[in-house]
Design brief:
2 copies of one chain form a homodimer. The first copy, chain A, is α/β, with parallel strands linked by helices. Chain A has helices at 8-27, 43-59, 74-86, 105-110, 123-130, 140-151, 171-180, 195-200, 247-250, 268-283; strands at 3-4, 33-39, 62-68, 92-95, 160-164, 184-188, 204-207, 225-228, 232-233, 241-242, 256-257. The first copy, chain A, contains 10 helices and 11 strands. A 6-stranded parallel β-sheet of chain A has the order 1-11-8-7-5-6. Chain A has a 3-stranded parallel β-sheet with strand order 3-2-4, sandwiched between helices. In chain A, strand 5 (160-164), helix 7 and strand 6 form a beta-alpha-beta unit. The mean pLDDT of chain A is 97.
Chain lengths: 285, 285
């Protein structure tokens, strides 16, 4: 039976560290603040927003939600995002995406100041990830995976790390973060030949492909560490979520595996707050 | 005996295509121009510059060298680069690096307009590579490797592509370009455990580590395609160059291999001109 890499202890450790940081910032008269920009009211966004606000509250920082109707026009929304970006008291900005199709998302994203881009929504933020610029903030999800690996003392240096999925939100930045810590990194995807064998060869397998339970027994091997980034509707349990890994299949085989829910997803809002506090420190240094 | 993936036929094909493009641009009264910025006069830079100027001449485009003394001060050089960047007739800019230590290279690079950044010297250029933005210009060397693979009809999609080296000039952008064409991409490096085995597992091995002849017989296998990006002083033949691959070792084993010299290095100035012409077309569209 594999060790379960639960997210809560990781998030708790981050929050404890952040609580101290916020307290010492407050002694200097500074309270870090996360700005959340939301257009419309998708249930998933509201759920994440609730978690983010709660984490802010736990660590002692402020948050503010800037909510707009789905039919907001481009010019008005550009003006709003620019104004939020200019707010001195907002240190980090999270904007839910995708935006409604009527909006030019690329343009909107570019209005977020890169120094407040705590979830890597801008081109400048992506560049910092690719070029290993420590002043940048990689997206929260792959950063949460790194926090998991660190917390559970899983060695990365020299190890075969296989990232399944190549999105700009998870797969590619994940690869860069693993490479930064001297992992040997393979990025594989739907077009990969012999995909199960490629995944099976990993010491650390990060599944970030967004397909429910696609990582089956033939993708894994004993001794392996599996980090499951997927959050998918569970086809077998209506109303429930499941990961990209078929947990029942993989768990008896591998050494350690993160569950879904209660795995990586439990860590992301703590990373969001961590980034915002780092941004606040840089903005006030 | 392996097929030799020579660079000259690849460069010739690109130059033929570019000659036609330049001719049609000239009919519209437009002549693409490459601006080359050089500080000091390192022999390697002068050699590359000579090749670039010659390629420009062959395809019918203009080039201009902007040369500065090694002791130029930051302010003067910033002013010069800004002025070159603003020149309407200069469509692409190559700047030799590293700059003398007395200069802030990061700052200088940022003065090159991203739309003229034909060798990916800017952060904006790097972002375009990472985010698969087709308006960007990846560095010339990894692009030359892709031109080699295309010219010799080597399939990439689904194949195991192993990039040895993780520099921002070759390794990382090479990985992104292979990924863009649906390769399964592994980035390995000096810290990789069992490095020979990781390389041996490749269908396509790109050696870009900058260490003379380090890829020996135990890194390769029959059926493999090897692209050697290295240009190193040959420890066994003073005054000669060699690649990262021990050619004598690997050539009898693998299926196809690019030689050094006369391999990838013969293609880079053609890519530089291709990028400049693409930049010119975008600037005039």
């Amino acid at each position: 039976m594999a060790e379960s890499l639960k997210g809560k202890p990781v998030a708790d450790a981050i929050k404890a560290e952040l609580t101290e940081k916020v307290a010492s910032l407050k002694e200097k008269g500074i309270t870090p603040k996360l700005g959340i920009i939301r257009v419309g009211a998708r249930p998933d966004d509201l759920f994440y927003e609730g978690g983010a606000k709660k984490t802010c509250q736990i660590v002692g920082m402020d948050s503010e939600v800037f909510e707009y109707p789905e039919d907001i026009d481009q010019a008005s929304f550009e003006k709003a995002v620019t104004e939020i970006g200019a707010k001195k008291d907002v240190n980090g900005i999270l904007m839910f995406s995708p935006l409604p199709k009527s909006l030019d998302e690329r343009k909107i994203r570019s209005l977020i100041p890169v120094e407040k881009d705590v979830d890597c929504l801008t081109v400048g933020g992506a560049a910092k990830v690719f070029t290993d610029d420590a002043t940048g903030f990689p997206p929260c999800t792959p950063t949460a995976c790194m926090e998991m690996l660190h917390f559970y003392d899983i060695p990365i240096k020299g190890k075969k790390c296989v990232v399944l999925g190549r999105s700009l939100v998870v797969g590619k930045p994940m690869a860069m973060l693993l490479l930064r810590e001297h992992g040997t990194v393979t990025i594989c995807h739907s077009r990969t030949e012999n995909l199960p064998d490629v995944c099976k060869d990993a010491d650390i397998l990060v599944a970030a492909v967004g397909r429910a339970k696609m990582v089956t027994a033939d993708f894994v091997k004993p001794g392996q560490i599996v980090i499951d980034v997927g959050i998918n509707a569970d086809p077998d349990n209506p109303g429930k979520y499941c990961g990209d890994v078929n947990f029942a299949d993989a768990e008896p085989i591998v050494e350690k595996i993160s569950p879904v829910p209660a795995g990586v997803g439990s860590v992301t809002t703590s990373v969001l707050c961590k980034h915002t506090i780092m941004a606040c420190e840089m903005q006030n240094s």
